[in-house]
């Protein structure tokens, strides 16, 4: 059955594993709700959920949780200690039900739309894993702990997608790179925009690891754009689809745990950028210049992705994308000059992340 966006505000109750799952709201409902308040109990539930219980956490709450501490950013030791409590074992996930949902319950349109969106993540996780070590060289000792943890997170996210594409989508290959090669046909050409820029910026930092201006340019692309905007948008689109339909429980659990990991990455990245601008206010021009480059690149779309089978229109994805960027900039206190405001209005979403 092909699902159309706006078709219903609430989905039917789904029978999953013999249990009745509560009625789910539409995947796009949060666009009309705006920011939500999280109770202390909800924050505790998100922070303390293990892999067995994270499947019951609402993805909209986890995305709200990403923003919770942006106004008063935690220090790197706090983030490292959270990592020690929150890391999860990617090999504990059981994709048996996901395979059944993928092959027997999802339509061909849903599968194609899902892969078109998630393949940018499959490749993005691997690239952010391998580009991060150079950024650690010039970091403070406290930030090095946080980055070491983040590298391990990104390695685990890479394995998560490797397992999903092997065990659920059914791609074949011996090594991790074989599976990446097999999913490459679904990667939009626009992936090469921010991720190609990141490869260039990582090389710049590798050659001059203590060049703070090069590090701020790298951090703007990696932490603000790729993780803070692209990654959270993809997470929201695929996870709200899975939750709405009651499908792909191991994907939902693993990727929701990934989203919680990303909250630490985004908070650490915003902490780094905020500190860099406080130490040297002229650094704001590096942030603006990098955003100018990224927004110019992002206006180019080489291939149309159809979001409707996942319950989204392109316009709604774009709204989500703008909301994610605006909230990060506002919470961290980064203003945009007028030309960037104009560029922002013209930008199209590029779905990928890390
Ligand atoms: Fe990340
Ligand atoms: Fe990641």
What is the topology?
Layout: E1 14-16, E2 19-21, H1 29-33, H2 40-48, H3 59-68, H4 76-86, H5 96-105, H6 108-131, H7 133-137, H8 141-169, H9 176-183, H10 192-207, H11 212-245, H12 249-279, H13 284-298, H14 314-332, H15 338-346
Antiparallel strand pairs: 1-2
The structure holds fe (ii) ion (FE2) (2 copies).
One fe (ii) ion binds next to helix 8 and helix 12.
What this model shows, in words?
The protein starts with 13 loop residues before the first strand and ends in an 8-residue tail after the last helix. The protein is 66% helix and 2% strand. The protein contains 15 helices and 2 strands. The longest helix has 34 residues, at 212-245. A two-stranded antiparallel ribbon has the order 1-2. The protein is mostly helical and 354 residues long. It has one domain (14-346): Ribonucleotide Reductase, subunit A. It is globular. Bound molecules: fe (ii) ion (2 copies). Residues 125, 153-154, 157, 258, 262, 354 line the site of one fe (ii) ion.
């Amino acid at each position: 059955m092909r699902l159309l966006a706006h078709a219903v505000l609430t989905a039917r109750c789904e029978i999953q594993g013999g249990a009745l799952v509560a009625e789910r709201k539409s995947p796009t409902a949060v666009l009309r709700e705006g920011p939500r308040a999280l109770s202390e109990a909800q924050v505790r539930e998100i922070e303390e959920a293990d892999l067995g219980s994270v499947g019951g956490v609402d993805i909209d709450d986890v995305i709200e949780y990403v923003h919770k501490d942006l106004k008063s950013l935690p220090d790197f030791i706090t983030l490292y200690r959270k990592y020690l409590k929150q890391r999860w074992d990617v090999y504990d996930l059981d994709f048996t039900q996901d395979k059944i949902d993928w092959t027997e319950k999802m339509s061909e349109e849903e599968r194609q739309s899902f892969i078109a969106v998630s393949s940018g993540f499959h490749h993005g996780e691997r690239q952010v894993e391998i580009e991060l070590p150079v950024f650690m060289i010039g970091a403070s000792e406290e930030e090095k702990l946080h980055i070491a943890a983040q590298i391990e997170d990104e390695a685990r996210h890479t394995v998560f997608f490797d397992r999903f594409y092997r065990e659920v989508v059914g791609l074949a290959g011996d090594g991790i790179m074989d599976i990446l090669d097999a999913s490459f046909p679904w990667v939009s050409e626009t992936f090469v925009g921010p991720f190609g820029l990141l490869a260039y910026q990582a090389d710049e930092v590798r050659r001059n690891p203590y060049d703070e201006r090069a590090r701020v340019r790298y951090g703007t692309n990696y932490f603000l754009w790729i993780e803070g905007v692209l990654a959270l948008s993809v997470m929201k689109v695929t996870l709200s689809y899975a939750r709405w339909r009651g499908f792909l429980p191991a994907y939902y659990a693993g990727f929701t745990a990934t989203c919680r990991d990303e909250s630490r990455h985004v908070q650490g990245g915003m902490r780094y950028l905020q500190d860099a601008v406080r130490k040297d206010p002229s650094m704001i021009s590096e942030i603006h210049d990098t955003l100018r480059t990224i927004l110019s690149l992002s206006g180019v779309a080489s291939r149309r992705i159809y979001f409707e089978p996942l319950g989204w229109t392109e316009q709604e994805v774009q709204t989500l994308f703008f909301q994610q960027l605006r909230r990060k900039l506002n919470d961290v206190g980064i203003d945009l000059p007028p030309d960037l405001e104009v560029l922002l209005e013209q930008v199209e979403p590029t779905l990928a992340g890390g």
